[in-house]
Amino acid sequence: MLGSFQQALKVGDLRTKVLFTLGMFLVFRFGAHIPVPGIDAEAFAKLLNNQLFGFFDIISGGAFKRFSIFAMSITPYINASIIMQLLTVVIPKLERLQKEGEEGRKKITQYTRYFTVVLAFIQGIGMSIAMGRYPGVVDNPGIGSYMIMTISLTAGTALLMWIGEMITEKGIGNGISLIIFAGIVARIPSGLASIVQLYSAGTIGFFNVLSFVVIALLVIALLVAMNEGQRRIPVQYAKRVVGRRVYGGQSTFLPLRVNMGGVIPVIFGMSLMMFPATIASWFPRSAVTSFINTYFHFGTVPYNVLYALLIVFFTYFYVAIIFNPVDVAENIKKYGGFIPGIRPGRPTADYIDRVLSRLTFAGGIFLAFVAILPNFVISITGITSLWFGGTALLIVVGVALDTMKQVESHLLLRSYEGFVK
Prior knowledge:
Strand order of the largest sheet: 4-1-5
CATH topology of the largest domain: Preprotein translocase SecY subunit
Shape: globular
Largest sheet: 3 strands, antiparallel
Number of domains: 2
Structural class: mainly alpha
Oligomer: single chain
């Protein structure tokens, strides 16, 4: 990986892409320290002693704790993208646009941008009103202050969306994923500093730190193995004679990834799990809020069970949307292919669906385990640093692997070009 990165810096056009991406990261980190007008950041930070919004603060790179203009991070864009993907299955017009190629995808992307702004504005209103219910957080509670806060938060999300699209277009890797990646990585120094402080104060010992390091390395290795793991279904193509030429006859495979849903089911499940906490924050003195803070927060058994079930459900749901075994079976049949021992057509689709269901179950259980992993880490090591969340590590490892694959593909393409020349 490091060798590929060093080679990338030696290639002119690839070096420009990498430097442009790093420059966008600097803009992101600079904006994470610009406060929203009318908010007392110190008073707001005292409200985050609980762990309800820990993950939200992690993916925003600490911007939520400071309540900066990037406090909502890129979450509205992620939610808008997921909802648009779901709507393409339900609404025939969007489904036709998706099948129209590049122009159709551009149109759907434009709709996603508009929807992102709408969601960001609604979320900004809710956050502004919620902050106004806590004494001392908003300097001058009122409609004017709420509108300024809402517009600032919405503009920050729109700017992050633009930065992500610029990274995708002119940089290297997926811009939206890299923004989340940068936010999580930015929390690592503060997390390590908190561990050092706990160790210096005698709260934890050397065995706790050693256990933390060993668990972190094992989890990273497991994440890499699961992200790269796949089931390869053999596909044989029959020979075809067209004129004087013979086509086909080769043997290939259909790769089915174990973690086909990626981190999307976890993010969608977390968004739903944050919904009760968000509603509760609007009514800080109600009985419902007291119940949620007592029995339904991060670390409790009901929270973890429901969170794990949601992740498994959304894993199946998301895989069903992005992968259709019937279409895959028809394409294999169309080009004269077949799975050895399986009849073409419907039996092939049933076989692929059966294999995919088993892989999806394994992937869903894996994602659920990773999501609730911090509970076991805290109980074993006594370290309560939220930045070591399994979800955060899943995002970091997945984005790092995908980005390095893109870098290596660019280098491979340039090597081919040099060989031809």
